[in-house]
């Protein structure tokens, strides 16, 4: 299945971005990150999308122009020589042209152009600065991330399809899981199942240095090994060069198997976690798992428009505290992460974040993965993660896999 | 298999980087990209590796400190509060401290610190500039990329293992290939085979916006679809959100099947391409394939220390021209790429590049993927790619898969 995004939707996306630009006195936005280009045009060919504060955008493409012309909702032109970029911009968007010399000396404020400072490499900005020396550059990361925060019905359809695909792969893995199989074997099977169903082969993540692969599968103490990954449980991985996700550890009985997986269908990701055990878990881990579900149910009761994001995180801290599990919540000790959930969409780490300081009120169209987990060093990780869309009246649960501690 | 890098090797790597820093009057290098951190320390936990021009480096780690301490050859300390970064740096490395106020007014040159401008996001540099306001920042990308250009015996061992793994997966795929299978099905099988053998699940690429997934598999016209990917044949892919690699097109008889695949073992990648056909190819495509092999053999005859990289590209252009295939070489028309090969190692797009302007003389320890290919729009792509290590006297071919046009 390939979901078609209606052409009018791209116009709406551009308009939403332009409204935010106008509110911040930004004259133009030069976007170049592949995911942002895709979001705003329907194509992710290499180049620059120039969005003026008023008027139509222009997609200057280096490669492949032909493909961008076939795919993009925006007007596509060949980028040509980068040296001419400034003149090109001035012709296409007179308000973005360098001010006349007289205005420069009388202190007229410079043109303000935004770029994606959170992902744009320094060397790339320097190239733009060379050809556009009259510009005051500002960080547009939050503007584009906030524009992308609210999903349309067609985006939700992609995420629902990803949720269906991951559930098929999950049930397939459960049907084959045996003690003695390595984490890697089980994970490879899941990846094979999602790929055949149309997983793009990568899950995109915006954060510097972050790689999500396809999530993690970790059993017993291997799941609880701390790592750099910006999540509650990254997993041991295959070695220092791949320090997350599945390891070569054989899976045993009566230990928690954390299966935190996702896939990417038509660009959109899903994220879900289930806890599985072959046999039975020790009582305290069962209780911790149940506390994770209790957190999820309590958070669900507040999942409706108007709730401030950080309130959901605070609620989860409170329940973990009441259960005497604060030290184990969302990682252990110094390696705890300070959030309960995160937006998902074209990337795994979208807005909003359920963390202190994130005061966004929930709005219809937000899609959030909520992942209460408890880490027990040398023993394992238990927890659950669902992805939700906020609706007019509450939420739609997007993940469809069965819940509860899954005993095989 | 997990290859162990000797601890002394990290000292040598740091020393090679320091020599380059001294030659460019750089007082210190603050590295933060995950692959560069791994190369210089043996760990890729999130943080900053501070390399002074003289003396021992210090790895300030945000997360996970415990894991970095277990893995890294360098001294690891917790990063702590980022606000204290400047004071911390001054204590650990007095030469990098802010100059006394008197020196500032007498025009003493500022401290010169390097960072990886080719990958470091603008927002990350701005954070460093805030806590280190006395610093003149310079681009250290080329220094670290040149340091990584020459591979050690233990690095070569990793690449040889990756070459073995991809060959097993390739032969497995050939044994199952049938007309009517989709590109995606065959590619999923290859990915499953490499993953079970220890592929990390990702192949890292340094270029902004570039994603390599696991290469591409393309049959007939789908292989020849132009795309953004910085290579001669990116493939059609699964849609505009994944515009490269395998598509859902069924593979037919008597058409070229380009299998350009790699994997990542212990962090190191291999890259190889073979052309396969079920049945027989039209005569002109057979001739183009043979021209690709002829280019490879001619280039091999110059693969020894001292040959300038760009000469190999020029030679390939000349042979393509003599064969009347210039328009088809390394892509078609406006979508041609202007190189013949590229370094590989921890990333797929390393130095040296076999392209005009790259005057590096070949040196023992360089590892280069050389990939002459010919693109025929609406018909397909044919070609071959081997990876080579330069030795004292010539080269070692690292890829081990059988050559020639493979007829099934």
Automatic annotation (TrEMBL), chains A, B:
Protein's UniProt keywords contain Protease: yes
Keywords: Aminopeptidase, Hydrolase, Protease
Signal peptide per UniProt: none
MF terms in GO: aminopeptidase activity; metalloexopeptidase activity
Domain Creatinase N-terminal: 13-149
Domain of life: Bacteria
InterPro entries named in the record: Creatin/AminoP/Spt16_N (IPR029149), Creatinase/aminopeptidase-like (IPR036005), Creatinase_N (IPR000587), Pept_M24 (IPR000994), Pept_M24_MAP (IPR001714), Peptidase_M24B (IPR050659)
Matching CDD domains: APP_MetAP
Domain Peptidase M24: 157-392
PANTHER family named in the record: AMINOPEPTIDASE, XAA-PRO AMINOPEPTIDASE P-RELATED
Protein name, per record: Aminopeptidase P family protein
UniProt lineage: Bacteria, Bacillati, Bacillota, Bacilli, Bacillales
